[in-house]
Design goal:
The structure holds two protein chains of two kinds.
Chain A lengths: L2 E3 L4 E5 L4 E3 L2 E3 L6 E7 L6 E7 L7 E2 L2 E6 L4 E6 L8 E9 L2 E4 L3 E6 L1
Parallel strand pairs in A: 2-12
Antiparallel strand pairs in A: 1-4, 3-9, 5-6, 5-10, 7-8, 8-9, 10-11, 10-12
Chain B lengths: L4 E3 L2 E4 L5 E6 L6 E7 L6 E7 L2 E5 L7 E4 L6 E5 L8 E8 L10 E2 L3 E5 L1
Classes of the chains: A mainly beta, B mainly beta.
């Protein structure tokens, strides 16, 4: 069984600042992937970034990067130079085969 | 590429009625997934298809729920004898099976079900 926990229900950040969203997970899989998805208000969910568990190097996608601590089962998302369009729900997820297990989400508000 | 589409976008029904939702995946995608998302929570996996075969079902998928993908293209999710606890957003996603690692799942806009 897999569990994903996001301990920050809501966060806010000033435009252009940096924010970090936390995620911890538990899995019995040896080979797994971790994901961050973004769900803007009334819009569909999109993949932000993914990390392969067997890779030590942290994934980066433009302003988005992760801090993957495998031993601690921690997978945080850092958003640099926050933009108003980053306002959304962010979900951390892990996979077991093709099934995704999601955390409860963090609502991020970027303030002008 | 029109993305994953779902119809209807909103459905209001009375308890005890049957409802059916449709999902049209991205055209070349051979995998299709259904998730349920209740308010303020993350999506929960319900079931997934590879082509027309239903390969996995969650324990959340009670016998009142049935999903089909008859020709390996669009899929339908039917809920019989709806209950108020079925009120949720039903999300569909599709992906293209790759050579290694999990496929990227592309999500549709969802169907919001309200059971009165």
């Amino acid at each position: 069984a897999q569990t994903v926990t996001q301990s920050q229900p809501e966060m806010s950040v000033q435009e252009a600042e940096t924010v970090t969203l936390s995620c911890t997970y538990d899995t019995s899989e040896n080979n797994y992937y971790l994901f961050w998805y973004k769900q803007p208000p009334s819009r569909q969910m999109i993949l932000v970034i993914r990390q392969e568990a067997y890779k030590q190097q942290n994934a980066t996608e433009n302003r988005f990067s992760v801090n993957f601590q495998k031993a601690a089962k921690s997978f945080s998302l850092k958003i640099s130079d926050s933009q108003l369009g980053d306002t959304a729900m962010y979900f951390c997820a892990s996979n077991a085969g093709n099934m995704l297990t999601f955390g409860g989400g963090t609502r991020l508000m970027v303030k002008p | 590429d029109t993305g994953v589409s779902q119809n209807p976008r909103h459905k209001i029904t009375k308890r005890g009625q049957n409802v059916t939702f449709r999902c049209d995946p991205i055209s070349e995608h051979n995998r299709l997934y259904w998730y349920r998302q209740t308010l303020g929570q993350g999506p929960e996996f319900l079931t997934y298809f590879q082509n027309e075969a239903q390969l996995e079902k969650s324990r959340l998928l009670s016998d009142r729920f049935s999903a089909e993908r008859p020709k390996g293209s669009f899929s339908t999710l039917e809920i019989q004898r709806t209950e108020q606890g079925d009120s949720a957003m039903y999300l569909c996603a599709s992906s293209l099976a790759g050579a290694g690692g999990p496929d990227e799942q592309f999500f549709g806009p969802g169907t919001r079900l309200t059971v009165l």
